[in-house]
């Protein structure tokens, strides 16, 4: 099912987005199926290889591994409950990623040289190593949506810049198939409620209905797309376009003004203008302001869908600014 009556026909072809998502899912399924044939495809690794413990002695091995697959390095400690919570989340996401990256856990109390080498000032702290190059990802407690977006971007950078497509995982190994939970859902009733709310102009109701789906299945593609669009429509509702654009033109570093103008660009179907505006704003800001703009840009990517070539180009531009 797809959101309808969104008044955003110039922004995104929903059928194309759904088709792209289905094509990606089929590709992932074929990849997993190839790994299961004959007890695992050549070079396939067991699921246990996706999450490893790293110490100083094994760092050279990680550098070599990063030439095949991005390695996410998680610095944690038993003394820091927030770091343990993030580690648990990262472990789950690494398994979901199915070989797109490997998670390496570093106990900071047992590996002081690695802490010094990466310049860790506090935990939790998460880095990535891609083709031997270290990249900072985030530090401190981080909400799951931001973690997911950052890791998705890391995978795209690794594929586009370095040609790293990850590892093939033998999902049949170690009883992984028996342990795989049944997919959540179905969500027809909730998605229908969201569409009904949109039809009646009840944007808060639509937002909540999509959030109800995502609370149980954070990766649900139709719910993510619908929520992003409903939230965009909520933000532009009642806006004065002339006043918004005048404020944005007056101060390129005014984060609120630039985000409001980008929302109007998106609602009007000017995707490249919206993406370019926010990438430029990321370039000229820092700290919390910069992070707020980056998060809004990622939200706008959701409105269109990750497979859209305009999103791919904008992600590459954002990566150049950030890294």
Automatic annotation (TrEMBL):
Q: Which PROSITE patterns match?
A: THIOREDOXIN_2 (PS51352)
Q: Name all Thioredoxin domain ranges.
A: 40-156
One Pfam family matching this protein: TPR_19
Name of the protein this chain belongs to: Tetratricopeptide repeat protein
């Amino acid at each position: 099912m797809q959101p309808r009556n969104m008044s955003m026909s110039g922004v995104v072809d929903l059928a194309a987005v759904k088709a792209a998502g289905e094509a990606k899912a089929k590709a992932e399924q074929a990849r997993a199926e190839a790994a299961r044939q004959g007890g695992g495809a050549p070079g396939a690794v067991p699921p246990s290889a996706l999450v490893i413990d790293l110490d100083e002695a094994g760092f050279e091995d990680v550098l070599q591994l990063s030439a095949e697959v991005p390695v996410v390095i998680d610095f944690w400690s038993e003394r820091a409950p927030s770091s343990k919570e993030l580690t648990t989340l990262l472990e789950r996401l690494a398994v979901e990623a199915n070989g797109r990256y490997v998670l390496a856990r570093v106990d900071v109390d047992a590996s002081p040289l690695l802490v010094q080498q990466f310049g860790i000032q506090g935990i939790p702290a998460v880095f990535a190593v891609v083709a031997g190059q270290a990249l900072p990802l985030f530090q401190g407690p981080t909400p799951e949506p931001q973690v997911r977006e950052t890791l998705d971007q890391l995978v795209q950078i690794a594929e586009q810049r370095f040609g790293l497509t990850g590892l093939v995982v033998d999902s049949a190994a170690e009883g992984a198939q028996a342990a795989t939970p049944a997919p959540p859902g179905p969500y027809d009733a909730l998605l229908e409620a969201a569409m009904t709310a949109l039809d009646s102009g009840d944007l808060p109701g639509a937002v909540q209905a999509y959030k109800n789906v995502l609370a149980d299945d954070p990766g649900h593609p139709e719910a993510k797309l619908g929520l992003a669009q409903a939230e965009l429509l909520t933000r532009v509702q009642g806006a004065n376009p002339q006043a918004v654009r005048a404020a944005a033109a007056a101060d390129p570093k005014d984060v609120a003004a630039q985000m409001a103008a980008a929302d109007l660009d998106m609602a009007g179907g000017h995707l490249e203008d919206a993406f370019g505006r926010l990438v430029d704003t990321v370039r000229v800001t820092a700290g919390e302001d910069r992070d707020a703009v980056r998060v809004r840009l990622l939200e706008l990517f959701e409105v269109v869908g990750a497979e859209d070539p305009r999103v791919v180009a904008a992600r590459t531009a954002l990566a150049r600014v950030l890294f």
